[in-house]
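Structure representation:
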Amino acid sequence: MSLIDTLTSLFAPDDCLSCRREGSLLCGVCAKALHQPPGTCFECYAAIDGIVCSACLQRSGCGSITAAADYQGVAKQLVASLKFLGNQSAAKVMAERMMNVYAPPPDTLVIHMPATAQHIRQRGYDQAALLAKQIVRLSRCSRASLLVRHGRQHQLGSDRRERLTQLQNVLHVKRQESIQGRHVLLVDDVLATGASVKAATAALLGAGAARVDVLVFAQSIGKREGLYNLKPDCL
């Protein structure tokens, strides 16, 4: 959070997104409405304890995939506040929730999923980078912006196969020597089809990462209830 945001929070505190109570962007009472996603694999829909089954996890190449909340209600409001309303203070609230469900080892290298250049220009920041900064602030990890995105691929309205095709040769790792042998934590705001996660994981492992874990704030309920109502730039 920037100095301006910090001063603003002191002299003009946020109202709770849910109940409008003054004091914080998400009050303690409404924070209890954040629930982790139901135990169903987001890819094959198998009933499990988590968000991805062992078979789908192995195919993804990830060491683990963790979501802090289900993408609905208050969680959806927080994502919209950060991505579309310019409220950067939402990143702190979201990161604190993410750290409640995943504690990275101290030597972990935190890398964010990059937004498109067009979205960064529109918003003035990359929301996943803000989340990564907050996670580093709350942990003993280091952070590096090593994953880069080329092109202007828009995934809204595409199914998983189309998204995977669109992302081929789009995500690349710069300064590959920086991640060789490292445990990497890939951070993003929303997980939907998992296409971006799969592409990013392949790029990071191909560049020499020893392991890639994925931590997102929210997991979309996906195709079961209309994934493609998500706004642009979700996974």
Remarks:
- The longest strand covers residues 183-191.
- Residues 73-84 form the longest helix (12 residues).
- Confidence is low (pLDDT under 50) at residues 223-235.
